[in-house]
TrEMBL record:
Lineage: Bacteria, Bacillati, Actinomycetota, Actinomycetes, Micrococcales
Protein name: ABC-2 type transporter domain-containing protein
Residues annotated as transmembrane: 73-94, 115-136
Swiss-Prot/TrEMBL keywords: Membrane, Transmembrane, Transmembrane helix
Amino acid sequence: MRSAFSLHASVGCPAPSLTGRNLLPAPRHRCQLPGRRRSTGAGRGELGFLASNAHLLGIQLLLNGFLPRWGTAITWTVYGLSMLAAMSGSLFSLPPEAIKATPFGAIARVPAEDFTWDAQVVLLVAALATGLLAMLRFTQRDIAV
C-alpha cells in the first residue's frame, strides 16, 4: 500500500501536512484542485490513430460499394492483421518493411518516436481517395428502396 507521501510525490505534488497540533491540511497545491488533471502529452499520439482509422473506414466504404456481402468481413480481417502486425510483428519475426506497410505500423509511436506528418498525410490522402471512389460506386449501385 502506498503512503500519502509516495502517492503525492509520484504526481509531483507536495504531501499534505497533518502533523503536530495543526490538524488542518496544508493549503491546496495547484495540482490538487478538483477537476484538474496533469497533462500526459498523449494528444498527438491519439491524433496519429485518426489517419489509420480513416484509412480503414475508406477501405470499408470501398468494399461495401463493390462487395456488399463480404466488405465488413474483409475490413475486419485487414484491421485485425494490421493490428497484429503492428503490435507484435517483431514476435513473429516479420521484417520491418512488412510492419511499416500496415496502417497502424506506419504511424509513429509517439512517446518513443517523434511525431511526423508524412505517414499521416499519406494515410489521409488514401482515405480520401478510397472514400471518393466509394461514393462514386454508391451512386452507380442499384439499391432497391
